[in-house]
Each structure stands twice: as C-alpha cells, then as structure tokens.
Amino acid sequence: MQQIALSYELLRRYPEEAAILDRALTIIPNDVAVKSARVLVDFDWKADTRPLCEMIDSILAKDPGSISEAADNWFLCAVLEHDPVAAERALVAQGDNPWWSDNAVLLSRSFGEGLLARVMKDEPKARTAFNKARAEQEKIVQAQPDYGPALCVLGLIDAALGRKEAALQEGRRAIELLPVAKDSINGSLMIQYFAVTAAWAGEKDLALQQLEIGARAPVSSVVLSYGSLKLLPFWDPLRGDPRFEKIVNSLAPK
C-alpha cells in the first residue's frame, strides 16, 4: 500500500494517496510511518500543518519512545513554527540519519542545523553548521564524483554558504549527470532542487525558470509540493515575486 501511495504522491494525486493511507491505518492504526505519510498528504496537498503537528504532540504525549521514527517530521513541524527548542530536540532524536529524504536527495542533520539557524536569524551558527555539512558532503562527492544527487546537495550547501559560482556549476552538473530522460523521478528532482540552489544563490530569474520547468515535470518532488512552496524556508528568497506566487497558486488544491 505504501508503494502505491508513494506513486500517487509523485503524481500529485493526493486524494487517492490519502485514501490508500487511510485504508492502511484501519489495518495498522499505530504504525508511525503510515501516520507520518498520511499527515504529510495534508501538508503537501493543502499546506495544512495542523495534522502534522498534532501527530507529533500525540506521539510525545502517548508514546515518546517511538518519536525517533517521526523525528524528521518533528523537525519540519518545529522549523515551520519557528520553535528552536523543539527543533533541537528533534535533531537529537534523528541521530545521524538524514533530516530530509526526497528519493535520492538526502540532507544531513548538519544541513538541518544550518537551516534552523538561518530561519532563526543566527548567521554565525548557520555558517558553522553549513560548513560542517559541506565537509561531510564533499566526502560523499569525492567517493561518487559522477553521482548527480550528491552534487545537487553540494550545490545547495555552497549556495547557502554564498559560494555562488561553485553552487551553480554543481547544480548544472547534477542535471547533466542525471537527466530526466535517464531517470524521470530523480532527474526531475535535479531540476527542482537546482531551482532552490539558484534562489539561494541570488539568481532569481534562473530559479523561477527552473521552477517552471520543474512544475511541468511528470513527477513531483516533496520540495515542489504546494505545501512546501507555500511554507518551506527553502523558497523564502522568491516570496513576494508575482511569478513565484503564480506558480504556487497553480499548484493549490482545486
């Protein structure tokens, strides 16, 4: 069932995804992974964070021992609510696991620490965390120099650190290494995350161009859902631009 639900998510067929997960929950009502997937449908589809945060509150109140299974979503909820204390607790619960997993795009705990610090306007802490994330990611790229998703993430980190030219070069190289024709899912992700890289690098026109291409892709990443575009800090550099708001509105629930 979860594989079918994932397919619906990639196709932005959220009503069908919700129905499949609701059915799964009648069979395994206490499964944290399924509950997490279900509340994220509301986030992706409607930009509704209430089910997500209510689920985290419920786990912490009734079964705190299982919170590690939903630590990534706890961190997401805390970042969206600008709650640094909860976010730090979520990162501890996350351990060494990636904070963000979107098919082949994996963002480390250090990346999450940098994102949180930037959201909280603590630039020295953000730079320290992103520098740590870069050192970790550089080792991954050195071990897999022709692996597009690893370069894609390095580009994101370099953009966060103000290394504009390196970031754009790495993002473009990731698209070359993993084109949509070779891998329709992860190839689309290379374009969609390159839009974030360009936005963070201050290349707004390029970011919007890539975002438009990504929005037309046959499959969608988590980062390009309506909820993510509406609320995720990744897209903050583009907020207020009419071209960006038009793309966001085009993905709003009908």
Describe it for me?
- This protein is mainly alpha-helical and 254 residues long.
- The chain has a domain at 98-254: Alpha Horseshoe (Serine Threonine Protein Phosphatase 5, Tetratricopeptide repeat).
- Helices cover 69% and strands 2% of the residues.
- It contains 14 helices and 2 strands; from the N terminus they run ααααααββαααααααα.
- A two-stranded antiparallel sheet has the order 1-2.
- β1 and β2 (105-107) form a beta hairpin.
- The mean pLDDT is 94.
Quick recap:
Helix content is 69%, strand content 2%. The protein has 254 residues and is mostly helical. It has a two-stranded antiparallel sheet with strand order 1-2.
SSE layout and pairing:
Blueprint: H1 2-10, H2 14-27, H3 32-46, H4 50-62, H5 71-80, H6 84-94, E1 100-102, E2 105-107, H7 109-119, H8 123-143, H9 148-160, H10 164-177, H11 184-200, H12 204-215, H13 226-231, H14 242-250
Antiparallel strand pairs: 1-2
Keywords:
two-stranded antiparallel ribbon; Serine Threonine Protein Phosphatase 5, Tetratricopeptide repeat; 14 helices; 254 residues
Question: In CATH terms, what is the architecture of the domain at 98-254?
Answer: Alpha Horseshoe
Quick one: biggest sheet?
2 strands, antiparallel
Fill in the CATH topology of the domain at 98-254: Serine Threonine Protein Phosphatase 5, Tetratricopeptide repeat
Mean pLDDT over the residues: 94
- Show unreliable segments: none
**What strand line-up does the widest sheet have?**
1-2
Using only C-alpha atoms, the radius of gyration works out to 17 Å
The CATH class name of the domain at 98-254 reads Mainly Alpha
> Between the first and last Cα atoms, what is the distance in angstroms?
25 Å
Shape: globular
Class derived from helix and strand content: mainly alpha
Supply the number of helical segments.
Answer: 14
| Fraction in beta strands | under 5%
SSE pattern, N- to C-terminal = HHHHHHEEHHHHHHHH
| Percent in helix | 55-70%
* Strand element count: 2
